[in-house]
Amino acid sequence: MVDESEQPQEPQEAQPSDVALQAELAEMRDRMLRALADAENTRRRAAREKQEVSQYAIASFARDMLSIADNFGRALAACPKDLLEASDPQIKAVIEGVEATERQLLAALERHGVKIIDTTDAKFDPNLHQAIAEVSGEGKPAGTIINVVQTGYTISDRLLRPAMVTVARKENAAPAGDGIDTKA
Description:
The protein is an alpha+beta fold. 48% of the residues lie in helices and 16% in strands.
């Protein structure tokens, strides 16, 4: 005789309450996964913002320091080399001190991610330069930087201050006023 308790039983049909519980479990699992993904995205965004804040926190201070660097450059440009060579040793010492201070200031800025925009033989780039005038190209192609009026700087990968430059114009450009009908 076979004991009914030992015989394998047919799987019972899922009860309506089991189906509802399975659906609720799936919904809760989905909510949990979405909440975990949202928490991870928030963590990543906070880490990125923290990095940006630390990188660019000195931007305002650096802009203020740039005007000091500009003044050092102007002071040194105002003293021609030939005049400096013929000057008093005390004046030479003062100029050398100004040069050393300018070098230290620029080195300190560079240690903190502030770098000079290189304009040597460069083409005008509106993302880095501000054109203040178009001048005769002096044999250089149109759009080439001719003169730097004010040095530009970047901080890390962002523009801190654009370089103010004069740009070579197209040589065969018609003078202003040509082609305009003024007989109206």
